[in-house]
Amino acid sequence: MILLVDMDAFFASVEQAMHPHLRGRAVIVCGDPDRRGVVTAASYEARPFGVHAGMPLAEAKRLCPKAEYVEGNPRKYVEKSLELLELFLTVTPDVEPFSVDEAFLDLSRMGDRSATPEAAMAIARDIQQRIADEHELGASIGIGPNKLISKMASGVQKPKGLTLLDEEGFRQLFWPQPVQALWGVGEKMAGHLNRLGIVTVGDLGRARPEVLEQAFGIVGPHLREAAWGHDATPVVPYHEGVDPKSMGHEVTLPEDCRDAEFLEGTLLRLSDQVARRLRGEGFGARTITVKLRDHRFHTITRQRALAAPIDDHIAIFEVARALWRANWKGEPLRLLGISASALAARGEGEQTELFERDTRGRALREALDKVRDKLGEAAVVPAGSLTHRREAGHVPFGAMKRKDPGALSREGTASQVKRVARDAAREGTGVTGRGTPRGPGSGTGDAAKRDAGASRGAGARRGPPTPPERGPGGGKT
Ligand SMILES: [Mg+2]
User: What is the CA(290)–ligand 1 centre distance, in A?
Assistant: First the structure.
């Protein structure tokens, strides 16, 4: 059995947990509350007023003027997220962080203790209770035979829901629903399906495979399987898949995007992920590669070799941004990736620059603030910031080979997560590479359509783990 633990109104709930005077009140987490921007998260008390993530702040203020408007703190949420991962790892070593507030837990290696639906339910209930007791947070948990079903079950009942579905229950519940209820089917694809006469999930399940294949290529048959509740994608534990030759992260954007600011924000986030992994593994990179895939699935990779290894997110970002700027012609992009290669163990060919420790922390804060000002919190800590994925990417609807699970140890996983947590908590004061830290806001792109950015803010927090190319649907927190 697989669980998907989804934190309820995560950012807002963390604020409430940390600031008792906010409990029971409508809390709206945003960027700087005095500037225009979007709602990053709304507590459940704010939702009856119609406030939701992604909504322009001005509108939220009209709907719910008495709410507490709280400037979000991405670092705090990442730290909390890592604490939760540690909790999950005491249950099973097979934990895959899916977004900053969601994680998959594969219980199958727990043997008899999780073999029946009842046993899995009891484990889920216990996790929910521990999250409440130890962190004063609410979570909703979906339980199912695979990732697809557990993910979709997690949204059935919120907040504090516990939903168990088998394949049959899944079909009963979702077949009558519009096809975009299916995880992975976005608005665009739903439109495409509708034009083929496929309106509900059930229609998709009954559709002729050839028709789907003709319309969507290899994704087509997987879509149909998904409608049946079939999904062979394994839970890929956090620490798996580290290739010592390169380390990369990529993200499929929630929708095709040509908003330069948003894309730069995404590059910054990817840089941070890559940098963190480099430091966690004790490497610096001499080559940085960016990967761009446009809306027509045309993919390019461009790389730059560096004189000395770097492991600093600002340095990586500057190289990645330069490559991106030199190669992006303004076409809508669906995927961005950054990888680091030509790795050198820390210490080789690297000078220790002590005085940079201070400036680096400042540069990080400035960088985060600048992006946050423009895009809201969601741009800085969107989904997948914690998601550790292999170069190959995550393929929800396709089978992916996984490594020998026997090679894992709970201790190893836990210590890895702790290390990453420490890294995050250190606020970027660790050893730096040779890059001169400079805020990335020094010259952001010019495009940036505000209206497009608004709804994307919310979407961006969703997990990008996408199948052969699609953003996951849904939009709750
Ligand atoms: Mg959530």
Answer: 30
- Calpha distance 117→141 (Å, rounded): 13
User: From ligand 1's centre to the CA of 317, what distance in Å?
Assistant: 28
Integer Cα distance of 195 and 189 in angstroms: 10
Q: In angstroms, rounded to a whole number, what is the distance separating the alpha carbons of residues 475 and 477?
A: 7
**At residue 325, does pLDDT exceed 90?**
yes
Q: Are 356 and 423 found together in one domain?
A: no
- Distance from residue 6's CA to the centre of ligand 1 (Å): 5
Residue that is written with structure tokens 């509708």 in the block:
194
Q: Is residue 138 part of a domain?
A: no
Considering the entire predicted model, what is its pTM? 0.57
Question: Ligand 1 is a single-atom ion; what residues have CB below 5 A from it?
Answer: 6-7, 101, 477
Q: What is the pLDDT of residues 208-224, one digit of tens each?
A: 999 999 988 878 888 99
> How confident is the model over 306-330, as a mean pLDDT?
90
Give dist(CA 397, CA 218) in Å, integer: 10
Q: Give the SS3 label for residue 102.
A: strand
In a domain? residue 194? no
240 catalytic? Reply is no
Least confident of 125-134, 265-274, 295-304, 456-465: 456-465
Residue pair 341/306 in contact (Cβ under 8 Å)? The answer is: no
Domain final residue pick, 27, 48, 74: 74
Token reading at 237 = 């534990």
In the reported structure, the alpha carbon of residue 314 is separated from the centroid of ligand 1 by a whole-number distance in angstroms of 29
CA dihedral 415, 418, 422, 423 (to 10 degrees): 70
Q: Are residues 447 and 317 in the same domain?
A: no
Whole-angstrom Cα distance, residue 158 to residue 6?
Answer: 9
C-alpha 343 to ligand 1 mean position (Å): 36
> Choosing from 15, 45, 68, 102, which is the catalytic residue?
102
Show the domain range for 433.
413-454
Q: Are 150 and 144 in contact (CB under 8 A)?
A: yes
Residue of 223, 197, 252 lying closest to 463 (CA atoms):
252
Our count of domains for the chain comes to 3
| Higher per-residue pLDDT: 355 or 381 | 381
Q: With bands split at pLDDT 50, 70 and 90, how would you rate the model's confidence at 18?
A: very high
